[in-house]
Amino acid sequence: MSIRLGDIAPDFEQDSSEGRIRFHEWLGDSWGVLFSHPADFTPVCTTELGFTAKLKDQFAQRNVKAIALSVDPVDSHIKWIDDINETQSTAVNFPILADADRKVSELYDLIHPNANDTLTVRSLFVIDPNKKVRLTITYPASTGRNFHEILRVIDSLQLTDEHKVATPANWQDGDEVVIVPSLKDEDEIKRRFPKGYRAVKPYLRLTPQPNR
Question: Residue 142 has what pLDDT?
Fold first, then answer.
């Protein structure tokens, strides 16, 4: 069964490069980024895991934990981590799930027969502190993931969870935001958005980004 936005992220217990992981317990009150890789010692994924390690402070500022997955065993992960650290000039600082029995892969629908009937596709899930799936992206094997975009989406999700706004196309943190159409009361609008707004159309009202 495919996972849709708003679903509760399936819980699991699985081995990892940092020991046994009980997923929901491991997440705690944090946001999570769970992303899968077809196998260890793959070139694109090596660069992705290295870049993720370099984003540790960026993730921490947003209360985000990263966790990767591959169907290879722990001992293979440990050797791969050595390669990642060497080639990407970093130190992997998050767990890599060792999903040799495909348990997590099946829970998250990560094995697609039209891609490969034994290896996982390169999917990514953003999960909020309530354990709800808020973003899913599946990439082709030839294209490295854009982790700046992942951070941008997390910024948007956290902002829009707190305020009655949405973020427009190509929004970056600090840009104008959209007041949600369901908010009609002008007194409430003035209270929520003291800097005012401009109505491009009655349904398209832009306001300076509220403080996060």
Answer: 86
